[in-house]
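ok here's RidA family protein:
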Amino acid sequence: MKKAVHTDLAPQAIGPYSQAVQVGNLLFTSGQLGMDPVTNEFPATAAEQAKQSLNNVKAIVEAAGASMNNIVKTTVFLKDMNDFAAVNEVYASFFEQPFPARSAVEVARLPKDALVEIEVIVQLG
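and the structure:
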């Protein structure tokens, strides 16, 4: 059985989807843009957007009763792969070993013309 997970500490869904869905002991987040949940504004750089995106992910993961250490897989979507090093530096500050598995891909465009979007899979319990 699936259950939606929601928090006001992350941006509200901008379409017909949940911030996250829990199935058994797994949590799947929707992609989180680097948008401030209060102002709905984006920071200027990819690194700043990555930090906000991961703060949004953290809020959702914590709303499900877990922590960033429970994340087992991440996917990072970048508008420009030239931002990889700067985003990677921010990303590393949110995790400790053993790091989650990760994919990072450059995409043609992200919602709201964001520079970064990050989604995660979390093992709960």
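+1. The chain has one domain: 2-123.
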